[in-house]
Specification:
With about 425 residues, the chain is mainly α. The chain has helices at about 5-45, 50-55, 55-65, 75-85, 90-100, 105-130, 145-150, 155-190, 190-205, 210-240, 245-255, 270-285, 290-295, 305-335, 345-360, 360-390, 400-415, 420-430, and strands at about 130-135, 140.
Length: about 425
């Protein structure tokens, strides 16, 4: 490659970043921050703070949803939606939020999750109300279906499907693949291209098997990986238990701009904290995006009532952000790596935190955790997109094979692309 070619590619990359940055600034700075929080508050008030009153009931419904005679259970759907939620957003996303928006970003992640629980309840209950059966007898549904059947606006459902396919089927899967290869390269020096080919091959096996294979794999992998990750976080919290009050105080003060920058440190504005925290929080828990509703429609809930699945999906937002994302933030902040002059970025920051606290062996643990978290997100994201491809095709499987190939191509692209490009694309497509 000549110097001229390199300069041209660099100029094109800068132009692309500028365009995407402008879109993100408009969406996240002026529209979605107010819209998402506003909708969450509206549903919270109308439902009488259901996320606080009925959290225990949600746990009860999840337990009863493990046994069904046929189809896909509420528990399997919960695990599949958690597979999509619990991924790079909980690890690299939290690290990015802390780096870009400061500790206050974590507070705004909590806020969007609290109100988002009510939104998740609504969107998944509606998915059950308007679900239909496809040619194989499998339930399908989601926002596209209830836009068509509930509002009588198929054009709206079509537009939603197109956006979701781009975001979840293509761009988000590039983000997950990027996190896997970046982590394995950081820990073991593995070649990103070779790892990309392997990820594509394994993802292809599950993607080609459709919803049932994805749900079955998710219900087995997700509980194990979540418990293991939280156990490591708990150890670090116990080791630094005396620092917890100071960390919580810093999060709250930074969220409202009450924390002055230390000597040589970085000052974060309220706007930076809000924008980063809400964007990263939404990317992680997906409340209000209408994504988890696509798989929620596939469940046969127990008791067999639409609201049952709403309770289950509401619990998913709580576990994702208020438990798992908080665990990631705690590990990073308690380790003190953000104060170091050579602090890493993205997933590498979390890896650096674990190494500082528990030693070099954690590189192997994190590599495995990231591999499982992000891989299950890839196959779950695909399941969301598959439902919307079928909506566009009148619930037929026409065009599914070609779409699956496009998904795998984006997984390969994400494996070798640069971190800023991938994350900015994710923000734009999500918005």
């Amino acid at each position: 490659m000549t110097n001229t070619d390199s300069t041209l590619i660099e100029s094109m990359n800068e132009a692309l970043m500028s365009v995407i940055g402008t879109i993100n600034g408009l969406l996240w700075g002026q529209v979605l921050v107010y819209l998402l929080v506003g909708v969450g508050i509206y549903f919270t008030v109308r439902l009488g703070f259901i996320q606080l009153r009925q959290l225990g009931h949600s746990v009860k419904i999840l337990r009863s949803g493990q046994e069904i005679d046929s189809g896909i259970s509420s528990y399997q759907v919960f695990c599949t939606s958690m597979a999509a939620r619990v991924g790079t957003g909980n690890m690299a996303g939290v690290a990015v939020a802390l780096t870009v928006g400061g500790p206050g970003a974590i507070f705004w992640m909590w806020v969007i999750a609290l109100f988002g629980m009510a939104t998740a309840f609504i969107e998944s209950t509606l998915a059950q109300v308007y679900k239909v059966k496809d040619v194989d007898g499998q339930y399908r549904g989601g926002p596209a279906y209830y836009m068509e059947k509930g509002l009588g606006q198929r054009w709206m459902g079509t537009l939603f499907s197109i956006f979701l396919i781009i975001a979840f089927g293509l761009v988000f899967n590039a983000v997950q693949a990027n996190t896997i290869t970046d982590a394995l390269n950081h820990s073991f020096g593995f070649d990103k291209t070779i790892m990309g080919v392997i990820i594509v091959a394994v993802s292809g096996f599950f993607i080609m098997g459709g919803l049932r294979r994805v749900a079955s794999a998710s219900s087995k992998i997700v509980p194990v990986m979540a418990v293991g990750y939280l156990a490591i976080a708990l150890i670090i919290v116990i080791m630094n238990i005396t620092e917890i009050p100071a960390v919580l105080s810093l999060i709250v003060k930074s969220a409202f701009g009450w924390q002055e920058a230390a000597a040589g440190g970085v000052a974060y504005t309220i706007a930076q904290a809000m924008q980063s925290g809400i964007a990263r929080g939404l990317f992680s828990n997906e409340a209000g995006m209408g994504s988890a509703a696509n798989i929620a429609a596939s469940a046969t809930p127990n008791p067999n009532h639409p609201a049952s699945q709403g309770f289950v999906q509401m619990l998913g937002v709580f576990v994702d952000t208020l438990i798992i994302c908080t665990a990631s933030a705690a590990m990073i902040m308690l380790s003190g790596v953000m104060d170091q002059p050579d602090a890493a970025t993205g997933i590498s920051l979390l890896q650096q935190a674990l190494t500082n606290e528990l030693g070099g062996w954690t590189s192997y643990f994190m590599a495995l955790a990231i591999l499982l978290f992000c891989f299950t997100s890839i196959i779950a994201n695909y399941s969301y997109a598959e439902t919307n491809v079928m909506f566009l095709n009148g619930n037929s499987k026409k065009g599914l094979f070609g779409f699956r190939l496009c998904v795998l191509a984006m997984v390969m692209f994400g494996s070798v692309a640069s971190l800023p490009v991938v994350w900015n694309l994710a923000d734009a497509s999500m918005g």
